[in-house]
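lol forgot to send this yesterday, sorry. struct tokens for the thing we talked abt
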């Protein structure tokens, strides 16, 4: 199921400018806003799915932190 959302031309161009080559507009918006978070959809998803999402996000944050640390070390 999908829904339509009205946005201004200006915002559409902003999202389009940040869209990666093999990414849909929805994927771009999700990446830009960082959502949805597991707690935002907890009443919609099963507990197992919400836990899986939470675990994946935590792993992603850890990986991002490691990558930032490595990058900082390269410039020291």
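and heres what i got for the seq, position by position
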């Amino acid at each position: 199921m999908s829904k339509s959302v009205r946005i201004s031309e200006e915002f559409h161009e902003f999202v389009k400018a940040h869209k990666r080559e093999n990414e849909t507009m929805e994927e771009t918006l999700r990446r830009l806003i960082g959502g949805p978070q597991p707690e935002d959809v907890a009443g919609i998803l099963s507990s197992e799915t919400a836990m899986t999402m939470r675990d994946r996000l935590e792993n992603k944050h850890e990986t991002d932190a490691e990558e930032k640390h490595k990058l900082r070390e390269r410039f020291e």
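The mean pLDDT is 83. anyway ping me if u want another try
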